[in-house]
Amino acid sequence: MTNLSLSNEKHATSTSSVIKVISDNNPDLLSKDQWAIKHEDKLPGCWTTQYNTELNKQYSDYLDEIENGVQAHQLEIELTDIKCKRNATFSQILVTMQITPFMNDMQLVLKTRNGDEVTLCSLKDLKEVFDVELTFEDQKINFAHALNQRIPGFCLPEGQQLLLRVSGGILLTDNILLFASYS
To answer: What is the CA radius of gyration of the chain?
Structure first.
């Protein structure tokens, strides 16, 4: 992950950052359509009556095989630099993601100078914002909205860090956009 600041934080009262997401860090997981294309040689012709039955069976077997690996997957993304000498408030933390059929969670975590961690909010706080039924479909969520609803007036103190912790079957599909004001 790379944090690209779009302004000079020493003199700015607000800034925008793009946190580059490397999709290779996602768990290795294919949607049913992707799996069918990759394994078309194992399936009967798509015009046959048994195509859907066989596709569902083989895709279900594929999901069973990789379930433990996907659920054990964890990724931590640094949204802010611990060296920042100013307090920060966040108006937007835009994340583009896909939900998969596996257990998953995403959390905003505050990490202090001495390594202590506190979960500020999680995907469970955003249930009304995104559709859990849309598997393998891009959805944009604003974590700052959930953070500011859960902790009104939240301000990240200087020298502390904000992390995005992703676990299980969540696929990050685009860069993370962060808007912050500094005081």
So the answer is: 19
**Over the chain, what is the mean pLDDT?**
84
Total-model pTM: 0.79
How many whole angstroms separate alpha carbon 10 and alpha carbon 81? Answer: 13
How far apart, in whole angstroms, are the C-alpha atoms of residue 123 and residue 45? 40
φ, ψ for residue 85, nearest 5 deg: -95, 15
| Residue 80 confidence (pLDDT) | 83
Look at residue 181 in the predicted model and tell me its pLDDT: 84
Round to whole Å and give the CA distance between 77 and 123: 15
- Angstrom distance (rounded) from CA 55 to CA 71: 23
Phi then psi for residue 4, to 5 deg, are -105, 105
